[in-house]
Amino acid sequence: MEFEENYDPYQHFAKLQIFIQSSLGEPVEPTTEEVLNKWEQMANNLPPRTFMFMVDIRKSDVVRAAGMSLLGYADNFRFNTANFIEWTHENQKNLVAYLTLSMYEVFFDYPNLIRNKSFEYCTTRGIKDRHGKYWNTHQAAYPAQFDENGLMVRYISTYRVLGPYTGQPLETYVYYNDDKYKAELKILSDKVNEIKEGMLQALSLTKQEKWILDLRANAEMSSRQVAEHLEITMKTLHNHHGSINRKARAAFPLNDFANINDVISYLKQQRLI
Prior knowledge:
Elements: H1 11-24, H2 33-44, E1 50-56, E2 61-66, H3 81-87, H4 93-109, E3 119-128, E4 134-146, E5 152-164, E6 171-176, H5 182-198, H6 207-217, H7 223-230, H8 234-251, H9 260-269
GO biological process, one term: regulation of DNA-templated transcription
InterPro entries: Sig_transdc_resp-reg_C-effctor, WH-like_DNA-bd_sf
GO molecular function, one term: DNA binding
């Protein structure tokens, strides 16, 4: 999966819908009585500082919502995935776009790993409320309904507000509530780790730029040592540094990176390198 420089995260939803339609097709099944009952039970026992919603994957629409007053909306406020990306913090939009599509692909490729199992997909991310304030939230998403081919068509997400968003990293992991799914957990965890390693693609870094970041961040080489290791001139290395800075500013627009060290420090904080 490749992303161009200055990748527009809103394009993600068009790509996501094409992917979903090619995988699921039509028609759209109605929400089953079993799923509605599960929803009502969860909504009636919503923990403090928590909102939740149910997503129809084919439409990318929220078909049920509860607790949305936490974000300044009506409790049952309806929206779609495009709205939700709009509420995502600017410094995480590119990463969330990459992450969401990547995880959908995993769930569609390996439906048996999540169907009829006590499975949760979790993230922490910054979400904007109706008044423009950002909050750090913990999401737990549960598969709710599958079609006749065994593919997920609805899921329920709960979001617990942890506190103000102050630049915390975008985290993601998978979880099973039963130890008997250790094999499934290992497979999905490996896939999640692969996605995490690929999240730097949201910066559109070239292979050599990724090497430079790795050598500077993990091997702790100086600029001169990196240039010697890659057999390039210092001028070429500085050109790469400038390119990395520009791409980092495009992906994380609220950060004014002065130099490569600022980029490395931020990417380490976000646990991307």
